Amino acid sequence: MKTDKVQSSSEGSFTSNGAPRVFTVEHLNTLIRNLRDQGYAVIGPVVQDAAIVYDEISSSEDLPIGWIDTQSNASYRLTKRAAKTLFNFTVGPQSWKKYLHKPSVRILEAEKNGNEFAVNDAQPPAKKQAFLGVRACELHAIAIQDRVLLGGPYVDPIYAELRTNTLIVAVNCEKAGGTCFCASMGTGPRAEHGYDLALTEIRESDHHYFLIETGSALGATVLAGLPAEVASESDIQAANRVIATATHQMGRKVDMSEMKEILYRNTENPRWQDIASRCMSCANCTLVCPTCFCTTIEDTTDLRGTRAERWRKWDSCFTMEFSYIHGGSIRTSPGTRYRQWLTHKFGSWGDQFGSAGCVGCGRCITWCPVGIDVTEELKAIRDSELVEAGSIKSKE
Amino acid sequence: MTTQSVQSAVGAPDLNPMLPQTFRVRKVINDTYDTFTLELTPSHGGAEVSFRPGQFNMLYLYGVGEVPISISGDPSRGNVLVHTTRAVGTVTKVMSKLKVGDLIGVRGPYGTAWPVEEAVGNDVVIIAGGIGLAPLRPALYHILSHRTKYGKVVLLYGTRTPSDILYRKDLEQLRSRFDLEVHVTVDRAMGTWRGNVGVVTNLIPKAPFDPTNTVAMVCGPEIMMRFTVLGLQKRGVALDSIYLSLERNMKCAVGFCGHCQFGPLFVCKDGPVFRYGQVREFLNKREI
Fold first, then answer.
1. How many other C-beta atoms can be found within 10 angstroms of the C-beta atom of residue A79?
2. ipTM
3. pTM of the predicted model as reported, rounded to 2 decimal places
4. What is the CATH number of domain B123-245?
């Protein structure tokens, strides 16, 4: 997999994957055009319905030029500035899982003939797609879903096919959002691995250009078709300054030390009830989450009943049906459903897949309609143990 | 496809693990008023049906849906799959209307197995509640067909009423064996019942097995399993010798859909059969 091709570069270094290059901002269009000429559908950030989402683009003109976002609990606002920035925003409500672990996929079709039926694998071959503007947190989210869906013992062939046909152009963040905490999760803001190419947008005095790094052989081939020059030491330092700015802007933080143990110890913490009094079980957090992978199945038949299909659709552990077995649901209260979600993300995911299930993108905080903040809830649960131990004052 | 074992779908990335193969209903047995047993054979012949006691299959009904159902047949019968099901949901109710010759989709077998190999040389106590006997029956078949390898073998079985007793004729025959102890109890008796009355855990104290040298296999409602563990513990059975089979909502059975999570465990791929120590931290907590 792509995630395995490139080893993590050392902190603050641009040199481990060959010399970085630079090209002027106009040549981003050359990159997009070259990818399209090579048969890739290029997907990047665009402004739609007052939010930055991902959609197919045909040139850099489609990007959110000049737009910046402001995010906090239950709040997302876009503003347009005069400066013609291309990537000066953080993540919006959508994630790339929309294109890799799709919201709705037909997993099989069956034809009935009299009393007999036959089942067919209904997968059309995947088309080549290039993601432009993948943030460090999202690279980690893709790597996490790789472990879930490709890590075995079973492999999801639908995801595998899409994943194999995907080229990734990452973008280093030059700012962090109000709900971002990738620095706490060790997932950003620098794109370190899992990309084919990585861009850093640099605007210094009247210079507006990209520093470009190569993360794979495929990336090197794509880069070879671009009029890029070898980056100078001052270009590299400029890029480092961009990323350092983002690192120091994190709107949220999480203390992850012993988080799993704390969550496992606190299954009966009264805080879950407190959260339940605010949580509407709307499932927004799970739908915007770039790592949430749960799905359900819908069976359909045509009106004559001679053709049946099975569709796999995104599901959420916040619904009652999610845990239904004969006789009723296992998790009947919003508090235990929230507990399941949060404990999975920050605790049991580690036991299952070797990392947290959270990348600190902050989407669940921004898009929660009542503004529940995972970082605040984790802190409350952690601090409740300190209160019990009588040591909260000395800790603060 | 026809010559491949159903099991070979595991880990082969070119095969879609969500794709069932068609099997044909060979026999339908109405066990009780709400449970039925289907015997299935591969519709195109040839496929070897191999599974380990305790594993389950996903059964697909055309246009209706798919459900996880444990395998209840004899693992040494190579060419037939046996599934015992209670008609409680949309899919299982339609399934209960299947007739001989009808087709059904099957994928599997999935999941972990009862520790029939680890139990060699030990006494074995099998404790079942209600339809929990179905996933334990393959283990009992296996043990009885390798009877000399095991010490004392005890089956303790509890149901709500006498009319809920599964495999009644089989149990009556098994009870006549000299190398097997079978004790059945019911929660509520009718006038004609002459057997034990009470919960299945009442049978544990007097059951003839050596607790220091016993492997226990338990399946039933979670509350029954919790109290069974307590009863076994009281007799002195080591907690690590107790195995339970859990049930959760399941859509995929291969670790993708997320529905069957139980703490850090996926019941589909880490279970359904667990050593008690794997689940004890979460078994006594509500709504995990």
1. 10
2. 0.91
3. 0.93
4. 3.40.50.80
